[in-house]
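Supplementary notes for students who missed Thursday's class. We covered one full example, reproduced here. Read the sequence, then the structure, then the short commentary at the end.
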Amino acid sequence: MPSSDVLHELQELIQQRRIEPGLLLLEKAHDDFAAVTPGMCHAGLALGCLAQWLDVGFDDHGLLGELLKRFPVAARHQMPVNDYLHLRLAEALFAMRHEELPAALQNLETALAIAEEIEDHRLALVARLWKARCLRKAGEYDQALQVTRKGIAIAAELGLPYVGAVMRTLESWMVFQNGEPKEAIRILQEAEAVLRNTDDFITLGNIQSAYGRIALREGRYDHALQYFEASIAYFQRRCSLGGYLARSLTNMSQAKRFLALQLRRSIDAGWARRMRVDAAERQRGKSDAQKLDKRDKAAQLERMHELLRGAQEHLAQADQIYKSADNHHGAGNVDVSMAQIHLDLGNLDLAEARAGEAFELATTKADYLLMCRARIVQSMVANARFEEQIGEGDDPSRFAQLAHDCAREAVDLGERTESRRLLAQAHICHGMTLVNGFFNNSEAARACCDRAESYLGYDRRDALWQELELLRERILHSGIEDPNLRAWSQGAVGDKSLQEVVADFEELLIRRVWEHEGRKVSRVASRLAVSPKKVRRVLRHLGLLAEGG
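Structure (token representation):
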């Protein structure tokens, strides 16, 4: 059993964020911790202390789990209150590390309620920090923010600036999720200033990672890569931080994928511009220009594939780390990210398999965030199969219905979280299925589009906003049956002048209104405020009205 002095010193070191001295002291006292049994004085305190050090990077090689087995419920009724509270903290941390969020929250609620009743403010502060993390992981951002801000106030009252800075880092994430990136950055900068001279590599790395996530949201993908590289540098300074390293690798892959998608859009836009160039202009200097275009396009395509290969390599590293740690959420996020890349490359079978694996992992932990993300990708894969009519003779409508069902379920799952962006993504996905050529329900798709936009707010610079813009474009085109209108909406007018385009549109409009108004010339004239004579002239020109009609 570690002495009272050792336990006290460990508590002081963690509050001062002096991590390395604490880790060395824990290594020396390892055998003493391993000898803890329920009847010992301060036994619960020892487990609670060990749990707090696990949270900042100590690798106990499974010791905490073994110790908790020695404390069955029947052995707890005679424990001092303080020991009992620390034991519940230890159980909460153990549950958190095994992704059992409901069990963790139950232990934390109990510990927090009793700690506040007996005015053990420092223990209550730890319970608040961990409770806020659990709520954030569950996607309950509003409640997590309330708990975090209360903890920050308590840390200030207790004179614990380092603990307060750790909680401010958590606060910044919720503020960011609420659509306030500038305020989130300000909070991060203040927290970083407090912790800069400590060796709390977890929090310092998390701060860099948060900067990177904000840069991703703002479409600054190159900057995001730099921040994620900085976070990786922190996490690599301590070998026990593999889970954090894997998360940054996953974020790196996302940044590279977004860069690749950005490059692909640039290639597509350039090619579309090239196709719209007047034939006479294309003819002049034709050979050199085409060779240059092909060389540029080949170089851009190679860069795009290089980025995607790099993203896959990062994900493979993260996957290995997560699976060795039996981290379902992390491994599931890797599966989703890998499925997205396979979908980008047109590897639908691989994309479908990885998305399915992600959903199965998510269901084992009732992880609604991950379940929603997986269903979104599954819907996108099914939609791609329908559009490409891949299925070896199967009715392609089956894929359209599957895409719709997965998207609808994604919306339902997203509503069980407080992630506005995830809900926006689910509604965009649902809208895409409604304009896929099978349902052709542009009105319902437009409603999905409006809901997605309401969730995104001012987030209008990243890949998700571009997905929303693509949905808008498809809605516009899905409602245009006439080939001329479709071409005009894309800016393609051929050799026609504006006057000629207006004349063609006039004929199209009069014809459609005539059909809509029961083929009554007088109604068309009244509806469009033109003379009946003009309506008859246009209809005769179109061959829809006989001479003298």
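Commentary. The chain has a mean pLDDT of 90. Residues 428 and 467 are 7 Å apart (CA to CA). If anything here is unclear, bring it to office hours.
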